[in-house]
UniProtKB/TrEMBL annotation:
<keyword id="KW-0479">Metal-binding</keyword>
<dbReference type="InterPro" id="IPR043135">
    <property type="entry name" value="Fur_C"/>
</dbReference>
<feature type="binding site">
    <location>
        <position position="96"/>
    </location>
    <ligand>
        <name>Zn(2+)</name>
    </ligand>
</feature>
<feature type="binding site">
    <location>
        <position position="139"/>
    </location>
    <ligand>
        <name>Zn(2+)</name>
    </ligand>
</feature>
<dbReference type="Pfam" id="PF01475">
    <property type="entry name" value="FUR"/>
</dbReference>
<dbReference type="InterPro" id="IPR036390">
    <property type="entry name" value="WH_DNA-bd_sf"/>
</dbReference>
<dbReference type="InterPro" id="IPR002481">
    <property type="entry name" value="FUR"/>
</dbReference>
<keyword id="KW-0408">Iron</keyword>
<keyword id="KW-0238">DNA-binding</keyword>
<keyword id="KW-0963">Cytoplasm</keyword>
<dbReference type="GO" id="GO:0005737">
    <property type="term" value="C:cytoplasm"/>
</dbReference>
<dbReference type="InterPro" id="IPR036388">
    <property type="entry name" value="WH-like_DNA-bd_sf"/>
</dbReference>
<dbReference type="GO" id="GO:1900376">
    <property type="term" value="P:regulation of secondary metabolite biosynthetic process"/>
</dbReference>
<dbReference type="GO" id="GO:0045892">
    <property type="term" value="P:negative regulation of DNA-templated transcription"/>
</dbReference>
<keyword id="KW-0804">Transcription</keyword>
<keyword id="KW-0805">Transcription regulation</keyword>
<dbReference type="GO" id="GO:0008270">
    <property type="term" value="F:zinc ion binding"/>
</dbReference>
Length: 144
């Protein structure tokens, strides 16, 4: 059974004239169901058995399409590999400095930071991003 978020995403793509291929559907479903903020390579590896003709380029092209449609956001952090997040709500991320795991956490948007930045600098601020770093539970267990 499809999730509500997946249904909404499929409807949005169809409304934009995008054909829903089995590969496209699988990539989108994986992104929505996965809470791991996967890289394109991780998505490819997860789906390659199911789709032997799938290529990393196909995954990248579809991720770009989903990003342009406003269904996913691209996260770029210190390791230079883009990760993709299908959770488009306002939220922040905590990142493990040991294994790179990324976990969502909800916190009221810090919009006053944007207002102060505009006032102090004269910039027209479009957005901000906050990242919190630490050790995940698994990495804490390894170090103790």
């Amino acid at each position: 059974m499809r999730s509500h978020r997946l249904e909404k995403a499929i409807e949005k793509l169809k409304a934009n004239g995008v054909r829903i291929t089995p590969q496209r559907y699988a990539i989108l479903a994986y992104l929505i169901e996965s809470m791991s903020h996967p890289t394109a390579d991780e998505i490819y590896k997860a789906l390659e058995r199911q789709f032997p003709n799938l290529s990393v380029a196909t995954v990248y092209n579809n991720l770009r399409l989903f990003k342009e449609a406003g269904l996913v956001r691209e996260l770029t952090y210190g390791d230079n590999s883009s990760r993709f997040d299908a959770n488009m709500s306002d939220h922040y991320h905590v990142i493990c400095t040991s294994c790179g795991k990324i976990v969502d956490f909800a916190y009221p948007p810090l919009t006053e930071v944007e207002l102060v930045a505009e006032k102090v600098t004269g910039f027209r601020v479009k957005s901000h991003r906050m990242e919190v770093y630490g050790l995940c539970r698994e990495c804490q267990d390894v170090t103790h």
